[in-house]
Amino acid sequence: MTIRLFRDGDAEAVSALIARTLRESNIRDYPPEHIEREVQALGAAEIRKRTGWMHFYVAEEGGSPVGCGAIGPYWGSETESSLFTIFVLPEHQGRGIGRAIIRTLEEDEFFLRARRVEIPASITGTPFYLKMGYTFKPGVPHPDGEGLNRLEKYR
User: Fold this and answer.
1) How high is the mean pLDDT of the chain?
2) Whole domain around residue 26: which residue ranges?
3) Would you give the distance in Å from CA 130 to the centre of its chain?
4) Number of helices followed by number of strands (H, E) in the chain
5) Is the full-model pTM beyond 0.70?
6) Domain count, the chain
7) Dist CA 38 CA 6 (whole Å)
8) Residue 89 backbone dihedrals phi, psi, to 5 degrees
9) How many of the other CB atoms lie within 10 Å of CB of 29?
10) For each of the chain's 155 residues, which pLDDT tens digit applies?
11) CATH number assigned to the domain comprising residue 19
12) Helix orientation angle between 11-24 and 32-41, rounded to the nearest 10 degrees
């Protein structure tokens, strides 16, 4: 498995990876209409757009994407960043790919310059991020109106 920066030609495959992961892994925590809104919001055009302001990485095996993740500034801040769009195909989960993606993001310049890093975490992904050292933001121990847990890590 290798992790590399996103290339424009990855957009369709990454979007499909995200859609499949949402539909198969996240469906146990969210209603189908929520999943489909997320699938539509994370289409190939949106992924390409995000790469304009985030550092977006793709994990691949045998030349095919099996996971992805991104990091960018938190609302333009120089001292805070956010992790986004972290997904691993269902059949590849539990094999260390997610950990490798997080390690890659935590070596990125947006992470290294930040004092605080936030993750708008799905309910499904929250246990994984807690294992990676992220904690609930104080006073926000439950999903917000978007169905996300707001987790953070201080450096």
Assistant:
1) 96
2) 2-154
3) 14
4) 6, 7
5) yes
6) 1
7) 20
8) -50, 140
9) 15
10) 999 999 989 999 999 999 999 999 999 999 999 999 999 999 999 999 999 999 999 999 999 999 999 999 998 899 999 999 999 999 999 999 999 999 999 999 999 999 999 999 999 999 999 999 999 999 888 999 999 999 999 98
11) 3.40.630.30
12) 170
Which residue's structure tokens are 């050292």? 133
- Tell me how long the chain is: 155
The C-alpha atoms of residue 109 and residue 5 are separated, in whole angstroms, by: 13
d(CA 93, CA 44): 22
Identify which of 28, 85, 41, 27 has the alpha carbon closest to the alpha carbon of residue 59.
85
117-134 burial: b if 16+ Cβ within 10 Å, else e = bbbebbeebbebbeebeb
CA nearest 16: which of 83, 65, 52?
65
